[in-house]
Design brief:
mainly beta, 0% helix, seven-stranded mixed beta sheet, four-stranded antiparallel beta sheet, single chain, 48% strand
Length: 124
């Protein structure tokens, strides 16, 4: 079983930055595609960013392009989400997910494992 643990969430003012981390268990982390999703109050879960198993390909929702950066350190079994120029509409619980097939796409369905989530709150 793959265990994912997110950290780094918190309260930040609009225009500020946060860096989320997701630590994964397992000996084959480098074979997983990884993604970040978020769910705001009263809203459905939505895609934020994804990265392929090697880190060579990244994908972003239009709403975060130019502001967020996903990266991974396979030696540390960790994926990151650097969030800059944060807006109040970025407020949500952020979830890390692993795609064992390695694609790290934008659809939630292929992701096999999910973390518990970390709260990000952006004030005006």
């Amino acid at each position: 079983q793959v265990q994912l643990v997110e950290s780094g969430g918190g309260l930040v003012q609009a225009g500020g930055s946060l860096r989320l981390s997701c630590a994964a268990s397992g000996r084959t982390f480098s074979s997983y595609g990884m993604g970040w999703f978020r769910q705001a109050p009263g809203k459905e879960r939505e895609f934020v960013a994804a990265i392929s198993r090697s880190g060579g390909n990244t994908y972003y929702a239009d709403s975060v392009k130019g502001r967020f950066t996903i990266s991974r350190d396979n030696a540390k079994n960790t994926v990151y989400l650097q969030m800059n120029s944060l807006k109040p509409e970025d407020t949500a619980v952020y979830y890390c997910a692993a795609d064992l097939k390695g694609y790290g796409g934008s659809s939630a369905g292929p992701y096999n494992y999910w973390g518990q989530g970390t709260q990000v709150t952006v004030s005006s």
